[in-house]
């Protein structure tokens, strides 16, 4: 890829996948998959467009909009829309690449994609948000559809933005169809969708605890980063299951509970209101009850925790922070954010897993542990197709089963393809990467998207 512009986020995600495939017996047993890797790493389609809109002062504004339609072998392209000034093609390619394999792990018929714009919703009026969403959808609507590409929310895109974009699509196309997920409950949304990523993350860690023989969440100390939907609902579910949540954070700094202090559901509800108003954590009325550390993430400040749930953004756990978590006796770390740990941090966790056996920290990658959000988006798509609405209990039970299946799939695949010593916990990052990869490339082979070359030991197919 040397002739292409530097895309550091995408290159990191690609190398992380490849390293786990290379360190397993996958290519040894299936040499034709090297050809598949070349094909699956290139998006099917990349769309870039200008978004022209007018601010409240009557000034013309222009932003760049994107949609990376990465892979549709398993179903319509599926993945969120992100509105943030940092958005660029490298970030969206990384997210779409990860989304492809994450969606495969849900067991639902969804391909992978990601999109968004370098638009900053912070400081914008409701009228400006509405105008931008309409202008954005006027270009995006040419490329999406219920059986083609079904976007959702992401950073900077919540229920309000989804509503404005859905309405714009309906007016532009004269069609009511499930072209976005995360919709309002009265117009095609699903119960549990806002909670899904956070709840699913906790359900996944529950499966890790059961397998490792380390009990339940009851009585455990949990460090969480972020304060958006994922962090909020992960925290609430942890508390419901008897755990103590000792940290939350945002881009400005972190709140850490000292001594026997901890976050309560009422405090988390207030923080949710603060973040919905796009205010910093310091606007929370109970901030004086916690230690606030400006410009910091919580990992080196929380002391001993049993569980760490990075739930803010990519690369939010560094090598040094990973080592601190290990040294302080953390047992489980699972990503609520996409690529939440740097590769160096993952190396620390995986090295400890190999060295310490059953007493090691156990790391779960985001493509498995945070797939609950897109899973319930898939369930929303199914409900839209049937023009039905399932109960909260039905959706929650399906979510639990999807997370259980994602864990067991990664676990069994790791045991099959990755050597481990007696007493060593299986590598969930390797198992999840391989399981998602194999499912996608097998479907692509069946559909003629790639075929074994003459140089791969004469193999003429994947079966």
UniProtKB/TrEMBL annotation:
Pfam families according to UniProt: ELFV_dehydrog, ELFV_dehydrog_N
UniProt keyword list: NAD, NADP, Nucleotide-binding, Oxidoreductase
Gene Ontology CC annotation, any one: cytosol
InterPro entries recorded: Aminoacid_DH-like_N_sf (IPR046346), Glu/Leu/Phe/Val/Trp_DH (IPR006095), Glu/Leu/Phe/Val/Trp_DH_C (IPR006096), Glu/Leu/Phe/Val/Trp_DH_dimer (IPR006097), Glu/Leu/Phe/Val_DH_AS (IPR033524), Glu_DH (IPR014362), Glu_Leu_Phe_Val_DH (IPR050724), NAD(P)-bd_dom_sf (IPR036291)
Residues the entry annotates as binding NAD(+): 197, 229
Active-site positions on this chain: 114 (proton donor)
Residues that, per the record, bind substrate: 78, 99, 102, 153, 377
Reactions catalysed: L-glutamate + NADP(+) + H2O = 2-oxoglutarate + NH4(+) + NADPH + H(+)
Keyword Nucleotide-binding in annotation: yes
Site-annotated residues for Important for catalysis: 154
Stretches assigned to the Glutamate/phenylalanine/leucine/valine/L-tryptophan dehydrogenase C-terminal domain: 190-448
Subunit structure and binding partners: Homohexamer.
Family note: Belongs to the Glu/Leu/Phe/Val dehydrogenases family.
Name of this protein: Glutamate dehydrogenase
């Amino acid at each position: 890829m040397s002739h292409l512009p530097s895309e550091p986020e995408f290159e990191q995600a690609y190398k992380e996948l490849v390293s786990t495939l290379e360190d397993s017996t996958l290519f040894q047993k299936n040499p034709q998959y090297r050809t598949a890797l070349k094909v699956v790493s290139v998006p099917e389609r990349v769309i870039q467009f200008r978004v022209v809109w007018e601010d409240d002062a009557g000034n013309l504004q222009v932003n760049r909009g994107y949609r990376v339609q990465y892979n549709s072998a398993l179903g319509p392209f599926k993945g969120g829309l992100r509105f943030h000034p940092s958005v660029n093609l490298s970030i969206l390619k990384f997210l779409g690449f990860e989304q492809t394999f994450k969606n495969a792990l849900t067991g639902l018929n969804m391909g992978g994609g990601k999109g968004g714009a370098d638009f900053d919703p912070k400081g914008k009026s409701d009228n400006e948000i509405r105008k931008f969403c309409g202008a954005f959808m006027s270009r995006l609507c040419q490329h999406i559809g219920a059986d083609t590409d079904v976007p959702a929310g992401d950073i900077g895109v919540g229920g309000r933005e989804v509503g404005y974009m859905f309405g714009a699509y309906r007016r532009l196309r004269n069609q009511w169809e499930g072209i976005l997920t995360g919709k309002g409950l009265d117009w095609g949304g699903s119960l549990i969708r806002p909670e899904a990523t956070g709840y699913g993350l906790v359900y996944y860690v529950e499966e890790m605890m059961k397998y490792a023989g380390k009990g339940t969440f009851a009585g455990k100390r949990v460090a969480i980063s972020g304060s958006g939907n994922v962090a909020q609902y992960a925290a609430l579910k942890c508390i419901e299951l008897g755990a103590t949540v000792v940290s939350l954070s945002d881009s400005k700094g972190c709140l850490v509970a000292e001594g026997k202090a901890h976050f309560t559901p009422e405090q988390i509800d207030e923080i949710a209101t603060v973040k919905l108003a796009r205010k910093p954590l310091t606007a929370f009325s109970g901030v004086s009850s916690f230690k606030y550390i400006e410009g910091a993430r919580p990992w080196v400040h929380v002391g001993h925790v049993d569980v760490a749930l990075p739930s803010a953004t990519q690369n939010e756990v560094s090598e040094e922070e990973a080592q601190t978590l290990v040294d302080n006796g953390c047992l489980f770390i699972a990503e609520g954010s996409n690529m939440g740990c740097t590769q160096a941090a993952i190396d620390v966790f995986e090295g400890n897993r190999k060295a310490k056996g059953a007493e090691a920290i156990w790391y779960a990658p985001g493509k498995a542990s945070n797939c609950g959000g897109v899973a319930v988006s898939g369930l929303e798509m199914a409900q839209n197709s049937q023009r039905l609405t399932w109960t909260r209990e039905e959706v929650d039970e399906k979510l639990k089963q999807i997370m259980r299946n994602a864990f067991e799939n990664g676990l069994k695949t790791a045991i099959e393809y990755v050597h481990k010593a007696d007493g060593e916990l299986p590598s969930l990052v390797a198992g999840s990467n391989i399981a998602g990869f194999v499912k996608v490339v097998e479907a692509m082979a069946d559909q003629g998207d790639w075929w074994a070359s003459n140089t791969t030991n004469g193999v003429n197919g994947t079966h």
